[in-house]
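1st attempt posting a full record on here, be nice pls
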Amino acid sequence: MSDPHDGAGSAPVEPVTPEPLRPLRRTLLHQSWLDVAFVHWAVAPESVRGLLPRGVRPDVYEGATYVGLIALRMHRVGWLGLPGVPYFGNFPETNVRLYSVDGRGRRGVVFRSFEASRLLPVLIARLGFRLPYMSAEMSVHRKGDGVDYATRRRWPRAEGGRGAHARLGLRVGERIAEPSGLEDFLTARWGMHSDRHGRTVYLPNVHPPWRLHRAELLHLDENLITAAGLPCPAAPPVSVLFSPGVPVRFGTPA
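the predicted structure (as tokens):
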């Protein structure tokens, strides 16, 4: 099980719950995540500790933390109360993420990289939010119970260059009626930790409970994980899941 404490003198770690723990006071950003593939590897916490923002440590489940490769379609991204943008707000995305907990006990994720196929959202995220977004050629194709994702980074060259890529295919299986503790740990994350000019901020989010399906990994060819500064996975993924998606709202940074 996950550790209920964040070390001596720290606040207890919040529980893992399939629904948000707290409401948003204000919606900063809204979007939908569609056709979501979750592929995860277990790693030792010590191997990723130095890649997290200051004041944040790896979140663990039964002694391990996890590296996630997440591929999806972003749909109708919108700001504040404005309608979602129909063209620039629709694009494939692939990210590499780690699992984190801060001194206040808030669980979240830390994104090591994002690939996106629209240059304008990439520039806004990099310049406005200091998030590691990259411009990439990308596609998501679904036919029957099969889903294929492909990405190849175009810019910036200095961060993995044009050789950074991922190609994966899933066969979607039955819906999971009762997600396991690990499946909730990997998917029910109600915020992200990021570094802003040397300060660690927490950006909360809310969405309905995930509709998770079991999935079979048909093929995987990627080097985004090593391009994000992580060791190359030495074993097959320990968890492969799929969700048709959820609508999501992000609050203001804390």
